[in-house]
Amino acid sequence: MDCNLDLKLKNGLRLYHVQDPTTKALRISLRGLAGASVENESQIGIAHFVEHMAFNGSTKYPTQAELQELITYIGGKSNASTGRESVKYWANGLSLYKEQIFEYLAELSVKAEYRQKDVNKEKKVIEQEIQGHLDSASGKQQDIINKALWPNQRAGIDVAGYIEHIESITLEKLEDFRNTYYTAQNFALQVTGDITKAEALDLAEKYFGHIPSGTTKIQIPIVTTNKDKQIIVENRQHLKQASISIVYPLAGYNDEYSHIDMVMNAILGQSPMCRLFQTLREKHNLAYSGGSSTGRYNSYGALYADAEVAEQNINVALDLMKKEFETLMNELAEDKELERVKNRIITLEAFEQESPSSIATFAASIYLQDLKIKSTEEFVQKVLAVTKEQVQESAIRIFSQNPKIVIMTPTWTQEQIEF
């Protein structure tokens, strides 16, 4: 693969190019910092709304159907997503149609024409998206967790916002948000697949060179975490199981202990051999699965330990999960266990780095998110160096904090929960 990870257009837009001669495919993505975190109180939901507006057409392709025909006719695919701290637009297809793919992504992401009729349409669509999210047990559970961990801040509200926020969004607000944040300083273009460096630069300049340079790179706001212990129970009578989530605060993705916490979390809940899976499923047959995951952002994050069990087994499951936390705090991990999870993490990273798009994404993240780890080699060496003592220290640091325990269940009340 030919990696060119330090290119820049005349307007300052960063270009991350990886040529892969073994494929006939081309993938392009435009990723930036214009996610939900930059919204003020009067803008909640607007970053996600801007992403929705992109699919309604541009001046050259004025309808949704005309714009989509540009990519679907050549057999390509595309989509977009908005996160808490980023937004991403992407398109892929055969490299034979590289010019059409570039044109499509530009028309979609930065040349969309905003019209009142489309604002009215998207309000209805997004309201249904929000309602569907809150109607699902998992969606509502995550909503409760966010509010509990990060109250009275943008991080405590779902990316899409709530229906009352959508109702207040106007055409003028959408245009102002895009004009303010959709600048070359705040985005990066990733081009990977069957395309040369010269072709990538020429087409990027042609289709994305018009983006305003901007004067200031977005600074992601600092988020504070509520450290109080909370047990929250929400009843959904149609459920046949209880969904348990025990959540502990984490620091942001540049935290000096993040790689150690990753190893500890892998021991706790990241494979069929992890402790939660072995305890909840294999030993006690309480759940189909049990595990843990982490989510990290610029200045904050969380570790989630999850299981779904029969309602009458809630307290049994909670006790078993708590004992696994305590064991990690009080006892050193076994050598074989530590080696196993390190091998897993490094193997997954190796597979990631076989993908040209993953290579470009990592390089773009170093710029956009100011990542402290600057290479996969550095990451691998850090993981390999983690000791059993450091894993124990990680468990003590995380599990000595007060958790948020959020349970979705048919009939039980908060008073019945023991933790």
From TrEMBL:
Residues 168-344 form the Peptidase M16 C-terminal domain. Coiled coil: none annotated. Residues 18-156 form the Peptidase M16 N-terminal domain. One of its GO terms (biological process) is proteolysis. SUPFAM superfamilies: LuxS/MPP-like metallohydrolase. GO terms for molecular function: metal ion binding; metalloendopeptidase activity. Pfam families: Peptidase_M16, Peptidase_M16_C. It comes from the Bacteria. Belongs to the peptidase M16 family. This is Insulinase family protein. It comes from candidate division WWE3 bacterium. The lineage of its organism: Bacteria, Katanobacteria.
